[in-house]
Amino acid sequence: MEILEAYDLTKTVWSAAELTGHDPKTVKRYVQARDSGLNPYEHAPRPKAIDAFLEKIEDWVDTSKAKIRADVVHGRLVKMGFRGSPRSTRRAVNAAKSAWRAGKRRTYRPWIPEPGMWLQFDWGEGPKIDGRRTWLFCAWLSWSRFRVVIPVWDCTLGTLVACLDTTLRRIGGAPTYILTDNAKTVTIEHIAGIPVRHPQMVAAGRHYGCQVMTCVPYDPESKGGAEATVRIAKADLVPTEANLLPQYATFAELADACRIWCDQVNTRRHRATGQIPEDRLDIERTTLHVLPDEPLALALGEERTVRDDRTVSFGSVRYSTPPGYTGARVWCRVVGEELSITARTDSGDLSEIWRHQLSTPGTPQIIEAHYPDHPDGRSVHQPRLRPRTEAEIAFVGLGPGAGRWLKEAGPAGASRIRAKMARAVELAAILGVAKVDEALGLAAAAGRFGDEDLPSILDHLAANRPPGDVVRVDEAHSVQPGTGGWQAMGR
Predict the structure, then answer these.
(1) Does 106 have pLDDT greater than 70?
(2) Coil, strand or helix: which one is 195?
(3) ∠ at Cα 186 (185, 192), nearest 5°?
(4) 3-state secondary structure 58-78
(5) CB of 303 within 8 A of CB of 315?
(6) What is the pLDDT of residues 328-380, one digit of tens each?
(7) Which of 150, 283, 403, 481 has the most crowded Cβ, counting Cβ within 10 A?
């Protein structure tokens, strides 16, 4: 600026050079660049040896669709008389490729979702539980950015419909479109590039009032939100060396972790919208369609009712179910060599409650964990204590040892039980309830129901001697010492 200001003042190159202390040629170059409308800071490109071959390089780049290598171009140029270095060739090829891609680059129109229009979902591989593979169903409501992640054992059609039913009921309605990729559970095949929908998936869309759509291959704008949900969920839920999460011991732990994760991401401010997804979901619910009361049973399997014994019958085989579903409707379907039992949980979600190995008639599948109130299985039931008379109430009131004594003495055929009960109550009034109850418990364990057995045990306990090993009275056992010790005499 000082050079141009000095030239405007003096109108001569030499005078401006003297005033600014620069060479006259420098002053002349800046002045000519300004008068020509050029940038004085940019130097005019000098002629290069490769300039004569640029047209041919551009032709090769266009023919190969910018895939030709620079070393191949250099070899061809050398045969055509080029004497430059490979470095000059690489620069020219890179410039030609950049110019070609600028004109051929694929462009996208920004996708602006509307409330109540789009629900996207995708699958992601989950953590292994006891060496078994799991999957994460990841759904994303496009406008509100509300996310739902559900762990499952497989990606079959019945599981997909159950996950969609749970997702739609969590968001409180059905959108107009459900968008996903071209999995076999959604698209059977492609004919001339047109996807052919799975009939049961079309039926599911009609049932919930949605239209199932599939994305175009290699189109990031059509399903990027669901893929981002999969990526974020796997980073936070699947144990890796990056997050140092512990392994999940049970499938229930994974389900709880997924629900907690959904609560966290849906209650924090989203970076793109600057709002909380749960707050935007309240607005979007006003544009969603009403859901049917019942799920699509066609894909979930055959409907069954859980009996009073917590079992369902499928294929003439009885299968047990977890506690809490007695009298409830469930759906049974075969997945490979397993029977999947699906039911609606207390939270309203449609979820798989158990899986059994398929069995044959006559071999029921009964899981002991489904009967926590029957720890010994279906054994002979013991009668319950139901004291009626004052004497019975007084004896049973001594404690659990007294009840145990009565339960053992009755089946053992002990004599004069009522008299012994009255004597035990009298001893409790003298020696204390706790001591007598303890003695009755030891007598029941050892099977000692004689007239003097209880006082004998009380005397033993009164001497502060430990009970020792309890030996149950048996006809095959005798306290008479053997004669083995006499055999060694006289030898």
Answers:
(1) no
(2) strand
(3) 120
(4) HHHHHHCCCCCCHHHHHHHHH
(5) no
(6) 999 998 887 889 999 988 877 788 889 999 999 999 999 888 888 776 665 55
(7) 150
Q: Which of 207, 159, 217 lies closest to 185 in space, CA to CA? A: 159
For 244-370, where are the alpha helices, taking DSSP H only?
A: 251-266, 277-284, 297-300
| Beta-bridge partner residues of 212 | 178
pLDDT at 345: 82
3 state SS of 158:
helix
Helix (H, G, I), strand (E, B) or coil at 123: strand
For 266, how many CA atoms within 13 A lie in the half-sphere containing its CB? 23
Supply the pTM of this predicted model: 0.61
CA 318, 321, 326, 329: dihedral to nearest 10 degrees?
-80
Judged on CB neighbours under 10 Å (0-12, 13-18, 19+), 91 is middle
- Give backbone dihedrals phi and psi of 344, rounded to 5 degrees, phi first: -90, 125
Backbone angles phi, psi at 112, to 5 degrees: -110, 100
Cα separation, 417 vs 34, in Å, equals 126
Tell me how far the alpha carbon of residue 162 is from its chain's centroid. 15
CA–chain centroid gap for 239, Å, is: 11
Give me the residues paired with residue 304 across strands: 330
pLDDT of residue 90: 94
Express each pLDDT in 17-75 by its tens digit. 888 888 888 888 888 877 877 776 776 677 888 888 999 999 999 899 889 999 999 99
pLDDT surpasses 80 at 162 = yes
Backbone angles phi, psi at 22, to 5 degrees: -115, 170
Task: Give me the phi and psi of 270, to 5 degrees please.
Answer: -80, 140
Q: How confident is the model at residue 252 (pLDDT cuts 50, 70, 90)?
A: confident
**Tokens, residue 445:** 């364990």
**DSSP reduced 3-state for 333:** strand
Cα separations in angstroms, 145 against 70, 215, 224: 46, 19, 12
Ranges assigned E (strand) in 153-251: 177-180, 187-191, 194-197, 211-214
Q: Residue 247 to residues 121, 254, 262, 366, 442: CA-CA distances in angstroms? A: 26, 9, 19, 28, 46
Contact 120, 180 (CB under 8 A): yes
Q: Which helix (H) or strand (E) holds 357?
A: strand 350-357
User: 274: closest CA among 438, 464, 145?
Assistant: 145
Other beta carbons less than 10 A from residue 113's beta carbon: 16
What is the Cα–Cα distance from 457 to 420, expressed in whole angstroms?
A: 14
pLDDT band at 445 (very low <50, low <70, confident <90, very high): confident
3-class DSSP state for residue 354? strand
